[in-house]
Amino acid sequence: MSEGIHTGFDEQKYPYINRGLEGIVAFSTTKSFIDGQKGELIYSGYLIDTLAENATFEEVCFLLWNDRLPNAEELEDLKKLLIEQRELPQTVLNYIQSADKDAEPMAVLRTAVSMLADSDDTKGKFDDALFEGQAIAITAKIPSIIAAFDRARKGEDIVAPLKEGSTAFNFLYMLNGEKPGKQAEKTMDLCLILHAEHGMNASTFTARTICATQSDMYSAITGAIGALKGPLHGGANTAVMNTLLKLQEQGDDADAVEFTKKRLANKEKISGFGHRVYKTFDPRARLLQNMSKDLSEETGHQKLYEWSMDMLETMKSEKDIDPNVDFFSATVYYSIGIQPDLFTCIFTMSRVSGWTGHFIEQAANNRLVRPRALYVGEKHLDWVPVEER
Ligand SMILES: CC(=O)SCCNC(=O)CCNC(=O)[C@H](O)C(C)(C)COP(=O)(O)OP(=O)(O)OC[C@H]1O[C@@H](n2cnc3c(N)ncnc32)[C@H](O)[C@@H]1OP(=O)(O)O
Ligand SMILES: O=C([O-])CC(=O)C(=O)O
């Protein structure tokens, strides 16, 4: 340790700092398992591929809140409760209508979710018996907030939620003002399943840290939304789409290989690639890649898919880095008509199930989260009066 640096630590005991907490195991969980070498993801016992093939988003919510799949009656009950909770309180609708049209959708969503606490009958009280009801209310209302803001900012009437249909179906209906077809609903539902849960990622860690102070679920989800919004986390899906749209502006013969190489040469990070845990292809990206390919052919967006593949191959050959979940979700969302600046909100619609599952788990076996920082500043300085500085 160099002279003048005072750590405040026993240096024998704390010889290094773990920047970014990489590899630190601070919680146990039954919510998900990730094998970063094999590229395997499991939600409460079920492989992501099994869930993608068989489950609905509502079943995944139940799974993440209860660590088991629902029987038919439990699933119907949950769907009913989610439908009952879709309507937004008038205070939140008023806020959405008055929000700046140019505001970031994730910022509006963050504020609106925070406001929901006021009109919740439980006031977000920290009580085991109330957590699942709060999780249902927040999960049900997030799609309504996203769709309402998107319509309000375009000067369109807000569409009231349906009293039927899946979360995916109702969201697309509220967003577009017309009922979606079977395929759009299925695509949306699959995206919700694939983004629901992912271990101790930055936003889930935020939610658990807030829970650990015994604050409340609304605060935890508000904080988690703030963490997800960043471009190194969930915000990367919007950044991926902006890159592809930039290529599109250059015309059909735009060169995605050169574009990627140039950015790498400038030491820029390429959004949608790399991961703290996966050292191979993210299994969700594999599933989304197949969807992206099929949808790009159906919607005439083949060029976007071709450029994505050029970027993928360049990242592999130049850096040996694979795509993460945000890479192909971008073109999937785009192909079903969602605007790029809403992409991270769609991620939120899904991830709220994992955040709330972790909140319930943390509360059941709580300990305050409180790591330490290595102090590297000065100590015991003499006070200098302001006029002498
Ligand atoms: C839902 C999600 O949150 S998935 C992640 C979404 N985020 C992104 O797509 C943003 C782009 N990716 C990244 O910034 C990173 O890969 C992260 C933040 C996701 C994970 O990164 P970390 O584990 O912290 O790795 P770190 O940033 O230290 O990168 C390690 C090395 O790989 C390089 N690298 C990692 N990702 C990328 C990338 N996307 N583009 C170019 N280089 C990259 C780094 O430059 C670094 O190289 P160096 O050792 O030569 O300096
Ligand atoms: O696990 C992470 O760090 C990021 C991620 O892929 C996710 O949250 O889905």
From TrEMBL:
Family according to the record: Belongs to the citrate synthase family.
MF term (GO), any: citrate synthase activity
Parts of the chain that traverse the membrane: none
Gene3D superfamilies noted in UniProt: Citrate Synthase, domain 1, Cytochrome P450-Terp, domain 2
CC terms in the record's Gene Ontology section: cytosol
Protein name: Citrate synthase
Keywords for this protein: Transferase, Tricarboxylic acid cycle
PROSITE patterns: CITRATE_SYNTHASE
Keyword match Manganese: no
Pfam families, A to Z: Citrate_synt
Catalytic activity line of the entry: oxaloacetate + acetyl-CoA + H2O = citrate + CoA + H(+)
Pathway: Carbohydrate metabolism; tricarboxylic acid cycle; isocitrate from oxaloacetate: step 1/2
Residues spanning the signal sequence: none
Residues at the active site: H275, D326
Organism of this sequence: Gracilimonas mengyeensis
Keyword Transferase belongs to the record: yes
GO BP of this protein: carbohydrate metabolic process; tricarboxylic acid cycle
